[in-house]
Amino acid sequence: MGFSSILSIALVLAPGSEAFLSARGAMPLASSRAVASPAAFRSTSMAPRQQCNTKSLKMSTAAAPVVAGGSTTAPVSAVASAPSVKPPPQMYQNAVDIGQKKASGSVAKLFLMGIISGCHIGFGALLAVSIGGNCPGLLATNPGLQKIIFGAFGLPFGLFMTVVGGGELFTGNTAVVTAAVIEGKASIGGLLKNWVFSYLGNFVGSLLLVFLAVQGGVVVNPGSAMGIATAKTSLTFVQAFARGILCNWLVCMAVWMSVSASDAAGKFFAIFLPISAFVALGLDHSVANMFLIPLGMALGAGVTWSQFLLANLLPVTLGNIVGGAVAVCGLYSGAFGSLFGKKK
């Protein structure tokens, strides 16, 4: 008996082989335990296999797209993953949509959400003063490192809470609501309503945090807070105005990028880099100053309310408006919007 005969008998006698072979068309169940000839076995077992291989070949050929030169490539999933951050044109359109919603909010909602954002920024500024402002030795020996610490711990945390948790931050609104107005999605009246009541809400929230911080005795280095208040109110009008422009340029870019990120990690990094940069550079943010300067005043800094409002808050606020509405929104609208005519 040849090797092929032995092999065919072993396959037929193997447990479950009858059902397998009958299902494949190689052997009827009626011929239970019958021994097929090697030639018959080979002829019956090869045909279904060839049919199966032919079908598989057709299916794989149909599934693989043909590229230039007649070659095929692996099939690509029809559903592509969304980018973690929108590209600049979509980023601008996203800002327009957000600005449209903000401009249509009620006065009560704008004011309340403004208070929330003022508290968020106040928390961040308090953290910065408590950590970065409590390094007097480092400030004397390595002022650059102290500025990095002051910028990294605090205000990025405050803006992150506003972006993720919700709020109405005046400085960020100078860019997104302006974009909605330029694209015809909001009115000048809606813009002014948003700016005025978010600004007032931010001021109330900041002063609330000042009161709680002082009453709670949580300021570990009052001298640092007083020094910040004195330094900020000692700037000239032009200096404060220019620092306000530069500051809100970075702040609005942080807002611009963070609201276009699809996950919390992307939002955090989009916020962290620009915000820590503006703090380390010593730039001026109107809402942060609504907390920092009154805090120093409450702790004993020789600064009057008129100095705070006229020498710092007014020029910084005007600079913030230019930084957000012109430097960020204006340039992006010129590139991707309809500021200079037909939308790109």
Automatic annotation (TrEMBL):
Record's catalysed reaction(s): (S)-lactate(in) + H(+)(in) = (S)-lactate(out) + H(+)(out); acetate(out) + H(+)(out) = acetate(in) + H(+)(in); pyruvate(out) + H(+)(out) = pyruvate(in) + H(+)(in); formate(in) + H(+)(in) = formate(out) + H(+)(out)
Membrane topology: Multi-pass membrane protein
Keywords tagged on the record: Membrane, Signal, Transmembrane, Transmembrane helix, Transport
Subcellular location: Cell membrane
Quaternary structure annotation from Swiss-Prot or TrEMBL: Homopentamer.
Disulfide bond listed as a keyword: no
Keyword Nucleotide-binding in annotation: no
Organism name: Ectocarpus siliculosus (Brown alga)
Family stated for the protein in its record: Belongs to the FNT transporter (TC 1.A.16) family.
The protein's name in its UniProt record: Nitrite transporter NAR1
GO cellular component: plasma membrane
Transmembrane annotation, as ranges: 110-132, 144-164, 199-220, 240-259, 265-283, 290-309, 321-341
PROSITE patterns: FORMATE_NITRITE_TP_1 (PS01005)
Chief location: membrane
Gene name of the record: NAR1:1
InterPro entries, A to Z: Aquaporin-like, For/NO2_transpt, For/NO2_transpt_CS
GO molecular function: formate transmembrane transporter activity
Residues making up the signal peptide according to the UniProt record: 1-19
